[in-house]
Design brief:
Number of helices: 7
Low-confidence stretches: none
Largest sheet: 6 strands, parallel
Helix content: 40-55%
Number of strands: 6
CATH topology: Rossmann fold
Strand content: 15-25%
CATH architecture: 3-Layer(aba) Sandwich
Mean pLDDT: 98
Strand order of the largest sheet: 3-2-1-4-5-6
Order of helices and strands: EHHEHHEHEHEHE
Radius of gyration: 15 Å
């Protein structure tokens, strides 16, 4: 049975910089523990990747906070998460928006029996990627790890988990 872990956007800007929250900081040890668990055949990690013209994009219009600008400090992975990902030979997938079509294609090729997803932010990038994966792999078990995800607010985190459950994504 092939089991895959997807770690979504554990980047400095989402943890403790431009868009960070105390909840994001609090999940870092849980994410590292999951990466280190040895339960996964493959680990993918996404990185939100924007360019210097971010504020001129549609996303930048709705979220006018520069973040995850490629090469800047906020774009890099949180150091503890990065070390764990390197140690476990994770494949990095850069994405220019919330959901990654590239990740979805890789997962369709990989065709795992189970996908476990965690990361930031539950109500934006985690849910987008979880739903893309659900659409691409309708018969694959997908689980979101509640204590290894954080939303933009605790309320949005809980609401997103509820939506994922409605779409047959198990929440643990």
């Amino acid at each position: 049975m092939r089991k895959v872990l997807v770690v979504v956007d554990l980047q400095n800007d989402f943890v403790d910089m431009a868009l960070g929250t105390k909840e994001a900081v609090e999940i870092v040890p849980n994410v590292v523990k999951e990466i280190e668990s040895g339960e996964y055949d493959t680990i993918y990690a996404t990185m939100d990747t924007h360019q210097k013209d971010y504020l001129n994009t549609l996303e930048g219009h709705y979220l006018p906070v520069e973040h995850c600008i490629e090469g800047e400090q906020g774009w890099f992975l949180e150091p503890n998460v990065q070390n764990a990902l390197i140690k476990h030979h994770a494949e990095i997938v850069e994405k220019p928006t919330f959901g990654s079509l590239s990740l979805m294609e890789k997962m369709k090729e990989d065709n795992p029996d189970e996908i476990v997803i965690c990361g930031l932010c539950t109500d934006i990038c985690v849910i987008n990627n979880a739903l893309l994966l659900r659409a691409a792999l309708p018969n694959t078990k997908i689980t979101a790890l509640k204590n290894a995800c954080a939303g933009t607010t605790p309320q949005k985190h809980e609401a997103s988990l509820s939506v994922m459950e409605s779409c047959q994504i198990e929440v643990k």
